[in-house]
Design a protein that fits this description.
- The chain is of the alpha/beta class and 285 residues long.
- It is 34% helix and 17% strand.
- The protein is built from nine helices and nine strands.
- Strands 3-4-5-6-7-8-9 form a seven-stranded mixed beta sheet, sandwiched between helices. Strands 1-2 form a two-stranded antiparallel sheet.
- Strand 6, helix 6 and strand 7 form a beta-alpha-beta unit.
- Helix 5 runs parallel beside helix 6.
- The longest helix is centred in the middle third of the chain and has 20 residues.
- The radius of gyration is 22 Å and the shape is globular.
- The relative contact order is 0.11.
């Protein structure tokens, strides 16, 4: 604002002394609703006015699902390598370093064990912020090891998927994780340990083609994008116009690909209810 206009309006603060509003104090949902960040966190990162489920990562899901946010992280130091020496617009090793510095994560999944409503639960949760939640060798290995922990300790397993699919920088090594994790889940099933799969926004590509759709019970958050190929690719392949809600949680539930849609506020109760139903135990209060 020019100095003469500032003077006319009675503004005395020098421009160089003005302070910008700190980032992160407010959140604006896609429907235009604005909510304070603190209020959003208290509401399980769901916009209270329009019920929009904001994308969150492992830190937030662990705080929602583990009692008092107490848990033991499994294999926290596993990091991806670059066996193919992959380079596109930049080196893969540089992408990994940049993603680690930006997110403070080692890779696109964290695994942990803790108490949920008083009972042990193993959770593997993907982080979309780390290279689009892409599924590389470390993601597959950490999920496999988490399943091994469930098998060895007879603890139910929850997988929270949030991914753009296989990590192209690891090519076939990434695709091998589909078979690897699926085989481990088969072992889990053979001994009757419950596996709950939670699909969040987005769950796509090889993740959908493997562990995300192999749960004893498959659930999702409202409005999540879930599919293999994107809508544009599907439309080009089929030559048909797609429904407005194509590949949303609600569309998949209607067509039998999901068992339930769970609001995030009810997620902890629902997960434990489903585990009890699978184990045929008395429902926890």
């Amino acid at each position: 604002m020019a100095w003469f206009k500032r003077k006319e309006k009675g503004i005395q603060t020098a421009t160089e002394e003005k302070k910008d509003t700190p980032k992160g104090l407010w959140y604006k949902s896609p429907t235009g609703k604005i909510v304070e960040a603190d209020e959003l966190a208290k509401n399980h990162y769901v916009s209270p006015e329009d019920d929009y489920h904001v994308r969150i990562g492992s830190k937030e899901y662990f705080s929602i699902l583990f009692d008092n946010n107490k848990f033991k992280e499994l294999d926290p130091d596993l990091e991806s390598k670059d066996p193919l020496h992959f380079v596109d617009t930049k080196k893969y090793v540089d992408r990994l370093k940049q993603a680690q510095e930006k997110t403070k994560l080692k890779d696109a999944v964290r695994t942990a064990v803790g108490k949920s409503k008083g009972k042990d639960l193993v959770i593997a949760c993907m982080d979309f912020a780390f290279i689009g939640g892409s599924m590389g060798s470390v993601v597959g290995e950490k999920i496999a090891r988490a399943i091994n922990y469930s098998i060895e300790n007879k603890v139910p397993f929850l997988m929270i998927s949030k991914s753009g699919g296989a990590r192209m920088m690891e090519a076939a090594l990434s695709l091998m994780q589909l078979a690897k994790t699926s085989a481990k889940l088969a072992q889990l099933s053979e001994i009757g340990i419950p596996y709950i799969s939670l699909c969040t926004d987005p769950t796509t590509g090889g993740t959908t083609a493997s562990y995300a759709m192999l749960g004893d019970i498959n659930i999702a958050e409202p409005g999540a994008l879930i599919g293999f190929a994107g809508p544009r690719v599907v439309k080009e392949a089929t030559g048909k116009d797609l429904p407005d809600n194509f590949q949303t949680s609600e569309f998949l539930l209607e067509h039998g690909f999901l068992d339930f849609i769970s609001h995030r506020k009810e997620l902890k109760n629902k997960v434990n209810l489903y585990i009890d139903l699978i184990q045929n135990q008395t429902v926890r209060a």
